[in-house]
Write a structure and sequence with these properties.
The structure is a single chain. With 297 residues, this protein is α/β, with parallel strands linked by helices. The protein is built from 8 helices and 16 strands. It has a single domain, classed as Carbon-nitrogen hydrolase (Nitrilase/N-carbamoyl-D-aminoacid amidohydrolase).
Length: 297
């Protein structure tokens, strides 16, 4: 399969584009079944005019893999990714998978498919290892947080815990993000008024990213059960500034549709020119001071 992870800039379209968020319940460790689900959803979404299809974190494998990690791992040029890539001629696809590097390290990764090619990979940089989470035991941590150029603009991807670290939002903003995608495997926990506490937190995070960067945000979360853990869904698409364009239901599988208009991003940037006024030199100077002081503490 041909693949290309270069940072080349394709011709960018400024027209509105349709997004299909695939809120699914992957089968744990069953690559074949999950691949068929992906192929079916991508094909149907493409027929219905989707310009972008977004799946949740580890959508090809399920989450609580533990010792199955090495069994379900895929290299960038694997046949399974080639099959998915063939469906990205008319639409773009974001999916989650276990990536095996040439050094046999395993990453919790997201891939961007466009024009029949794997164009970009983001490796989860922050691996939760507390409470019910044990990712650092099985995965290596990614070492980069970067945007990449696509036909839909400049895109940044954060995988679950990545989004809880504010510095990553700052990095994507400084790197010129036009769209931010948050991919989650977030369990249902707690009750806050009429909604789950974990849902409320994630919706706050997504809204804050949209508000602070003045960009549209896609939050793709899964549903279903693994090891007695329930995943709540409630995927969202947000406009620049944080207003909700579309929201999926709790707990049920659903294809969430929304239209993102780059003109709204332009208007938000004109109205509140946060990127223009960002002072990266101040941020860098203060972070260097803090790192220096910590080193001498």
């Amino acid at each position: 399969m041909p693949y290309d992870l270069s940072m080349t800039t394709p011709g960018r379209s400024d027209r509105p584009f349709r997004v299909a968020v695939a809120q699914i319940a992957p089968k744990l460790g069953d690559l074949a079944a999950n691949l068929e689900t992906h192929k079916r959803i991508i094909a149907e979404a493409s027929r219905n005019g989707a310009d972008l299809v977004v799946f949740p974190e580890l959508s090809l494998t399920g989450y609580f893999l533990r010792d199955l990690v090495s069994d379900v791992a895929l290299t960038a040029d694997s046949g399974i990714i080639a099959e998915l890539s063939q469906l990205s001629g008319q639409t773009r696809v974001v999916f989650g998978f276990v990536e095996e590097s040439s050094r046999n390290l395993f990453y919790n990764s997201a891939g961007w498919l466009e024009n029949g090619l794997l164009k970009a990979i983001h490796r989860k940089a922050y691996l939760p290892t507390y409470g019910m989470f044990d990712e650092r035991r099985y995965f290596a941590a990614g070492s980069r947080v970067r945007c990449f150029d696509t036909h839909l603009g400049r895109v940044g991807i954060l995988i679950c815990e990545d989004a809880w670290h504010l510095a990553n939002t700052v990095i994507l903003g400084a790197d010129g993000a036009d769209l931010v995608i948050l991919m989650g495997n977030s369990p249902a926990r707690g009750v806050n008024s009429s909604e789950l506490a974990s849902q409320a937190v994630w919706h706050h995070i997504a809204r804050n990213v949209a508000l602070s960067l003045n960009v549209p945000v896609i939050f793709a979360n899964r549903v279903g059960y693994e090891d007695g853990v329930c995943f709540f869904g409630s995927s969202q698409v947000l406009a620049p500034g944080g207003s909700t364009l579309a929201q999926a239901a709790q707990l049920d599988e659903e294809i969430l549709w929304a239209t993102i208009d780059p003109a709204a991003t332009r208007q938000a940037r004109i109205r509140t020119p946060l990127a223009r006024d960002e002072r990266l030199e101040l941020t860098l100077r203060e972070l260097e001071r803090i790192a220096h002081e910590r080193g001498h503490a």
